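lol ok so funny story. i was supposed to be doing the assay writeup but got distracted and ended up predicting the structure for this chain instead. priorities right. anyway since i did it might as well share w the group, maybe its usefull for someone
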Amino acid sequence: MIALLAVAGAVLLVDGALRGELRHRLAGVSAGLLLALPLTSVAVFGERALQLWRKVLSSALMLLVVLFSVELAARWLDLRAISAAELEPDPVLGHVRRPGRGGLDEWGFRNEALPERVDIVCVGDSQTYGANIRFEDAWPQALARCSGRTVYNLSDGGYGPLQHVSLTERALELRPRVVVVGFYFGNDLSDAHRFAGLEHWAALRDPEFSYSVPNDIRGGDTRSLNLTMALLDALEQRSRLAGAFAQRIKLQLKVNPALVGLFKGGAPSNGFEQGRISTHFTPLDRLASVDLARPVARDGLRITAICVERMQAACRARGAEFVVLLLPTKEAVYARLLEGTGDARADSLQTLYAAERAATQAVHELLRTRGVRTVDTTGALVEALRSDVACWPPNSDGHFNPQGCEVLARELWRELGPMFEQESAGR
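and the output, tada:
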């Protein structure tokens, strides 16, 4: 057994050293060294090491039996808490999550349960879903706490204005008083163009553009970059326990500042350190979506205008208030914070800031002309930073952290609160 492990370790080590990005190579080399460790120690220390590894392997076998039993129990009882969320292709939304897995409700969204009726439904992408933070820390849940109202989170990562149309129509089944759509400047304009590649949205395409099927449907290149990653991917896909564990490990890699460079493949970023606030910027990653000088962003703005009209009409038909919550990029908020200070760190953000400011004005205008109630959170986020409240993780992740979600929820409730008070007073 020890010799077989050593042979497998040698294969994984050589394969891992030759293929994949840095983090994939490290995984392959580490797995190979780990499997070769028993034979190496036996060669060095002899019979004592052999006896030790026999005990270790016996204990490992017992542990595998226990884990296999828990895996069977998780499948039999369909335990959501230890089940990884599974993505499936969808012709309208691009992708959906399988209901009842990974803490998702009967519709496949991030809520404790599917209610018959709610006060507020929040529609959006990963910023609304609460990527890289706990369920209870996402801004829709923070809104429920600060308002005392029932709130349903109808969002998922990767969604954009086209998905928001379909989700708004579904939201109205819950008979909400308000439907809030979170519009994120970091990618929503480009997503509006990208998902027009789905055949369901073909009528919204501009004949001058060429559209392709998004990766959500096409699947893209899913080949693992080395044998170690192939084995890990297979285990993650086939085991509920392994899938849930892998999600938690990836989360730590994304939010741990010491490991973020490894996880993101060493992408360059600009740093900010001041008081209790620490973060990194990736302005070039956001520029394509907000730069209206680029055809994709302009087409996304055109499609977004159509989506807004459809969502507004659907809400009016059902007697619900339609509200758009504008979510700026982290880089634009910091650029505004540093504006006029002479801080050299602002220089690298100016191109994105200028482009996002123009895009924000354009979105504000299309919402204003249609009479859509709008909440811009930029000012509240800037004030939070000035008060030494970090609103994003201490790395290049652009998703709001729990403190940032609290800021969003409070700013939104400042707009919605009087509406509910007037409704209560009129009864």
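The longest strand covers residues 178-184. Residues 84 and 122 are 23 Å apart (CA to CA).
back to the writeup now i swear
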